[in-house]
Design a protein that fits this description.
It contains 20 helices and twelve strands. The chain is of the alpha/beta class and 587 residues long. This is Alpha/beta hydrolase family protein.
Length: 587
C-alpha cells in the first residue's frame, strides 16, 4: 500500500457492491420463501403418503436447506464489504489529514511516505522558540505510516473474508445448512463478545485513544455524512465522549449510549450501591433532556459514561458555534444525578446571565463531571485531607483534554473560553491549568475555593489579570486550614466543637493556627488562598452569604445589589466584559 493508492482510492465502489449484494440477498430470500411455501410446504402438507412421497419430501427438504444456506452466505457478504469500505475510508481520512498538515507546515511527502523540508533559515537556527521540524516530520511520517498500515491490514482481512465465500461456492460448502448454521452462531457470538472473535476493522481504524482532539476533528469532518451517521449508530460509546468530535455528533451518540446504559443497568439484578446511583442519575438525565426538548437554549449531552462513579456533561448552547463558552467543574460529593439537577441549573442560570449581559453575543454554558469527585461525610477541617489530590490531578487531565476538544471542534473564530471551578472543582481546574501545555482558556473563575495548588495566579497560565475569585466571607470552605493549621485542630477542636458544624470547623482552625503557628496567614489546604492579595487574582464582589455551609453554594443565587453580585459578575466574565466586574477587597 502506497500513498497514491490510498489517497486516490474510491471506497464508494465497495459500498456500491455491498448494496448490490444486500439487494441480491433480499431477492434471494424472497425466492427461497417462495420455494419453501409454494413447493416444499405445499407437497409436505398435501396429504401425499407413501415411499415416493417420502423420497420426494426428503429431496425437496434438501433443496430448501441448500437455499437457506445460500441465503445466509449471501447475507453475510454485504456486511464484509461495508466494513472493509469503512475501514478504507477511515484510513484514507487519516492519510489525507496528515498530508494536509504536511502541506500546511511546508513539508514535502514522497509517494513512499518519506518526509523532507527546507533547511532552517539563519533566524530559525538562532530562535529557541522555533518549531522542531525534525520532531514534526517524525510525527507526520508516523501518522502516514499508520494510515497506510491500517489500509493494508483492512485490505488483507477483507480479502481473506471474501475468499472464504469464494471457496464455499467452489466446494459447495456454502450450500450446506450445517456449515451455514455453525458460521452464523459463530458470527453472533463474535458480535456479542467485544474481546474476542473476528477483528472489528472499523473500530481498529478510528483515531487512537491518545490522538489529539485536532486529529479526531479532522478525521470526523473528512467522512461523508452517511458514514458519520452509520458510525454514530454503530459505535456511540466510542464516539460520544471523544474530545474533538463536533458537539451535535457527540450529543446524538451520547443519547443513544445513555439509553443503552439505562437498559443494561435496569436489566441487572446484582447492582452495587454505585451502580444504583448511576442508574438513578442516568434516568434523571434522560428526564432532564426530555424536559429541555424544544427549549432555548438547546441542551447537548456532551459526555456520558459509566466509568467509576459515572460521567456526564450537559451544555446549554452549542459550544462549536458560540462566541463565549464556559465549562463549570463541580466539587465534593457531586454525583451523576446532580448533572440533571442543581449543576445543570447552574449552567443554565449562567447561560441566562451571560446572555442578558450581552445579547449580541452567543453563549454556551457547560456543566462538566468528567472525574470521580471525592465523597466525604460531613464538613470538617480535615475533609480535604480525606479528599486528597489524586482525584483532582486525574480530573485535571480529563478537563484539559475536554477544553482542548472544545477548541478543536469550534467553528470560525476561536470562542472566548472560560474555565470555572467550584469548591474541590476549583482545585481540579487549577491542576489542569498547571499541567504541561496548560488549558486553552482565556479566563479562569474560582468560587468557594480551598486553593488551586498554586501560590500565585500567574502560575495558572492565563495571566494573573484573567484569574477571577469569588469567596464569600461566611463560606467555611474558603477558610479551611492549611496543613500547618490542621496540626492544632486537635487542640482547637475542644473549643471549636462547642459550635456545631462548619462554624466549629472554622473556630477550631483559627485556634489551631494560633497554637501551631505558621508563616503565611493566607495559606489554605491546597496552597495560597485565591482571595488573598498574595495570590494576585481579581477578587470579585460576592455577598457574605448565610451563616453555615449554605454560603458555600450561594454563588449562583446572587444576582442583584441586595444579594451580592456573584452571578452577575460571573456572567460579565463569561461574556468577555471583565472590565465591568465589581471588585472586592483582598483578604
Amino acid at each position: 500500500m502506497d500513498i497514491p493508492t490510498l489517497r486516490d482510492a474510491d471506497p464508494n465502489r465497495l459500498f456500491t457492491a455491498a448494496d448490490a449484494y444486500a439487494s441480491l440477498a433480499a431477492a434471494f430470500s424472497g425466492h427461497a420463501d417462495t420455494w419453501r411455501d409454494g413447493v416444499d410446504g405445499r407437497v409436505r402438507n398435501s396429504g401425499w403418503r407413501g415411499t415416493a412421497a417420502d423420497s420426494a419430501q426428503q429431496s425437496l427438504a434438501r433443496t430448501t436447506g441448500k437455499l437457506t444456506a445460500a441465503h445466509l452466505e449471501l447475507a453475510r457478504i454485504a456486511p464484509v464489504l461495508r466494513e472493509g469500505a469503512e475501514a478504507f475510508l477511515l484510513a484514507r481520512s487519516k492519510l489525507r489529514a496528515a498530508l494536509a498538515d504536511a502541506d500546511a507546515g511546508g513539508f514535502t511527502v514522497s509517494d513512499d511516505g518519506g518526509i523532507s523540508w527546507p533547511p532552517p533559515s539563519a533566524a530559525e537556527r538562532h530562535d529557541p522558540d522555533a518549531p522542531d521540524r525534525s520532531r514534526q516530520g517524525t510525527e507526520l511520517r508516523d501518522r502516514i505510516a499508520d494510515a497506510l498500515s491500517e489500509a493494508a491490514h483492512a485490505d488483507q482481512v477483507t480479502a481473506q473474508r471474501l475468499r472464504q465465500y469464494t471457496n464455499d461456492a467452489r466446494t459447495g460448502a456454502g450450500l450446506d445448512p450445517g456449515t451455514a448454521a455453525m458460521r452464523l452462531n459463530s458470527a453472533v457470538l463474535d458480535a456479542l463478545n467485544p474481546f474476542g472473535g473476528d477483528e472489528d476493522l472499523v473500530r481498529a481504524g478510528m483515531p487512537g485513544k491518545d490522538a489529539p482532539p485536532t486529529e479526531v476533528n479532522a478525521w470526523w469532518k473528512s467522512l461523508p455524512p452517511d458514514e458519520q451517521q452509520r458510525l454514530i449508530q454503530q459505535y456511540p460509546a466510542e464516539l460520544g465522549n471523544r474530545d474533538g468530535m463536533p458537539t451535535p455528533a457527540r450529543d446524538q451518540a451520547n443519547r443513544i449510549n445513555l439509553d443503552r446504559m439505562v437498559a443494561d443497568l435496569s436489566s441487572r439484578q446484582d447492582l452495587s450501591d454505585w451502580d444504583k446511583k448511576k442508574l438513578e442519575g442516568f434516568k434523571a438525565i434522560q428526564g432532564r433532556l426530555r424536559d429541555d426538548q424544544g427549549k432555548q437554549p438547546p441542551a447537548y449531552l456532551m459526555v456520558i459514561g459509566d466509568q467509576g462513579q459515572g460521567r456526564a456533561a450537559i451544555a446549554y448552547g452549542n459550544p462549536d458555534t458560540a462566541d463565549d463558552v464556559v465549562a463549570y467543574v463541580p466539587g465534593l460529593n457531586t454525583e451523576v444525578k446532580n448533572m440533571a439537577g442543581g449543576d445543570a441549573n447552574r449552567a443554565r442560570d449562567l447561560w441566562q446571565t451571560a446572555h442578558d449581559t450581552d445579547p449580541s453575543r452567543s453563549t454556551a454554558s457547560i456543566a462538566w463531571l468528567g472525574y470521580d469527585t471525592p465523597q466525604v461525610k460531613g464538613i470538617s477541617p480535615d475533609m480535604f485531607a480525606v479528599a486528597g489530590e489524586d482525584r483532582a490531578k486525574q480530573g485535571g487531565e480529563a478537563y484539559q483534554g475536554f477544553l482542548q476538544g472544545l477548541r478543536a471542534s469550534h467553528e470560525g473564530q476561536p470562542a472566548h473560553l472560560t474555565a470555572l471551578g467550584h469548591s474541590y472543582g476549583s482545585f481540579t481546574v487549577g491542576q489542569a491549568a498547571q499541567r504541561p501545555g496548560g488549558i486553552p482558556a482565556d479566563d479562569i473563575v474560582l468560587v468557594g475555593s480551598p486553593g488551586t495548588g498554586a501560590q500565585q495566579a500567574s502560575q495558572l497560565g492565563v495571566g494573573a489579570g484573567h484569574v477571577w475569585v469569588g469567596a464569600a466571607e461566611h463560606d467555611p470552605v474558603s477558610h479551611l486550614p492549611s496543613h500547618s493549621e490542621a496540626k492544632g485542630i486537635g487542640i482547637g477542636a475542644g473549643i471549636g466543637g462547642v459550635l456545631a458544624g462548619p462554624l466549629g470547623a472554622v473556630a477550631g482552625g483559627f485556634i489551631g493556627d494560633k497554637i501551631a503557628g505558621h508563616d503565611d496567614p493566607h495559606e489554605l489546604w491546597f496552597g495560597q488562598d485565591p482571595a488573598s492579595s498574595e495570590f494576585g487574582a481579581h477578587r470579585f464582589d460576592v455577598a457574605d452569604g448565610p451563616l453555615g455551609f449554605e454560603s458555600h453554594s450561594d454563588y449562583w443565587n446572587q444576582g442583584d445589589g441586595r444579594d451580592g453580585h456573584s452571578l452577575r459578575n460571573m456572567g460579565l466574565i463569561v461574556s468577555g466584559h471583565g472590565d465591568r466586574v465589581s471588585g472586592q477587597e483582598y483578604r
